[in-house]
Each structure stands twice: as structure tokens, then as C-alpha cells.
Design brief:
Length: about 100
């Protein structure tokens, strides 16, 4: 379900503070965050966030195309290992 337009986009307050201090310092360091639910704002363009996926922090470099999306969309939580060869053999035998 989408968020109401009159409420505006959701961003954790501490994430805004970290982004402002990082932009003010001029250093390009990774901002670690667990807030996958936060919306990417225009102030975040050019910054690198380390978004936690439940196992490790994945670096996400924010570009203009990402504005309006959530941080969690760019840090997948599951790894697809592919289909096993056994499944393909079973399909051929039953066909």
C-alpha cells in the first residue's frame, strides 16, 4: 500500500543528519544504515550508502534515477544460486 501524498516521503531522521554531515565534510565515505525503508531524496545523490541486507552492508551509490525509490530495493536480501541440474533431468524424464 502506498504512502499518502500529503504525508510526504519517509526518511529516518538520523539518516538525513548523517547525509548532511557527510556532504558537508566533502569526504566520500560509506554511510552505514539499517533503514531499508527510507526513501531516496535528491539530497542523497552522489553519496554512497552501506545498506544492510541481513548479512552484510552492500554499497549503494545513489544516482538521479534512484530518487523516489527505497534504499532496500538496491540491496537484495536473497541470493539466487540458479536451478540445479537435477531439476532439469527430472523435467526431461517426465516429458
Amino acid at each position: 500500500m502506498a504512502r499518502s501524498v500529503w504525508k510526504g516521503p519517509f526518511v529516518d531522521g538520523y539518516l538525513l543528519k548523517k547525509a548532511e554531515t557527510s556532504r558537508g565534510s566533502g569526504r566520500n565515505e560509506v554511510i552505514k544504515t539499517w533503514s531499508r525503508r527510507s526513501t531516496i531524496l535528491p539530497q542523497f545523490v552522489g553519496l554512497t550508502f552501506g545498506v544492510y541486507n541481513g548479512h552484510k552492508f552492500l554499497p549503494v551509490l545513489v544516482t538521479e534515477n534512484m530518487i523516489g525509490h527505497k534504499l532496500g530495493e538496491f540491496s537484495p536480501t536473497r541470493t539466487f544460486t540458479g536451478h540445479t541440474a537435477v531439476d532439469k533431468k527430472v523435467k526431461k524424464a517426465s516429458a
